[in-house]
Design a protein that fits this description.
The chain has 195 residues and is α+β, with helices and mostly antiparallel strands. It has one domain (3-193): SMI1/KNR4-like (3-Layer(aba) Sandwich). It has helices at residues 3-26, 61-66, 77-83, 89-95, 120-139, 184-189, and strands spanning 33-35, 45-50, 53-56, 59-60, 98-99, 103-107, 110-114, 145-151, 156-161, 167-171, 176-181, 192-193. Strands 11-10-9-8-7-6-12 form a seven-stranded antiparallel β-sheet. Strands 1-3-2 form a three-stranded antiparallel β-sheet, with no helix packed on it. Strands 4-5 form a two-stranded antiparallel sheet. A hairpin with a 2-residue loop joins strand 6 and strand 7 (110-114). The protein is globular and about 50 Å long. It comes from Colwellia asteriadis. It is found in: Cell inner membrane. This is Protein Syd. Keywords: Cell inner membrane, Cell membrane, Membrane.
């Protein structure tokens, strides 16, 4: 892992820790909660609070591999083979650093919801969605992007330009229209959790 990828991984981990800390500070030291689904379990789940609710916290994927709770690090090799394309290292680092529920955030350009994989099964679903998104971009003869966040506006996503690593806002099916940051690492220096 290059130093820039280590920096990005650390930024993601720090952001996730800040999210939990802020939530606990505002909610009597309780962890964030989310809907509980018996069919959609995750190593993020701390405890079941009710039939349809559980507490959770982001968890480092490297820690799960180290503790042999998952067999091997997550990889985008199958996506790259299916598309005959190399994904930008930043997006691979972003999605393989933590398992987490989505996290609400704020940046200079407005509110966004950062997307993460909840579990290994969710990581597989994420990969399928990324393949579909990139195939759509190729069909439209647009530069490949990989989404990693959504905004308050239903049809605007935040994505990474696969060629340059820049972060852009784009309408689904359209070319990116507003540059948000030079890189994912730069984005994390200016994004705040709003737990």
């Amino acid at each position: 892992m290059t130093s820039s990828n280590t920096t990005l991984a650390q930024a993601v981990l720090t952001f996730a820790e800040q999210h939990v800390a802020l939530h606990q500070e505002r909610n009597n030291n309780e962890l964030p909660s989310t809907e509980f689904d018996e069919q959609w379990l995750s190593p993020c789940i701390s405890e079941k609070l009710a039939d349809d609710l559980c507490s959770w916290q982001p968890i480092a994927i490297a820690k799960l591999v180290e503790q042999k709770e998952i067999a091997k690090p997550l990889s985008f090799n199958n996506v790259e083979q299916a598309l005959d394309l190399v994904l930008h290292q930043d997006i691979k680092t972003y999605f393989t650093t933590i398992f987490s529920d989505s996290i609400e955030a704020q940046c200079a350009d407005g509110s966004l919801t950062l997307l993460f994989a909840w579990s290994e099964a969710d990581f597989e679903r994420l990969q399928e969605n990324i393949i579909g998104h990139i195939m759509m971009k190729q069909r439209l003869k647009q530069a490949e992007t990989v989404f990693f966040a959504v905004t308050d506006e239903e049809d605007i996503i935040i994505s990474l330009d696969n060629e340059t690593g820049e972060v852009w806002a784009e309408r689904v099916g359209c070319k990116p229209h507003k540059k948000i940051a030079d890189s994912l690492a730069d984005l994390f220096t200016n994004v705040l959790t709003v737990s």
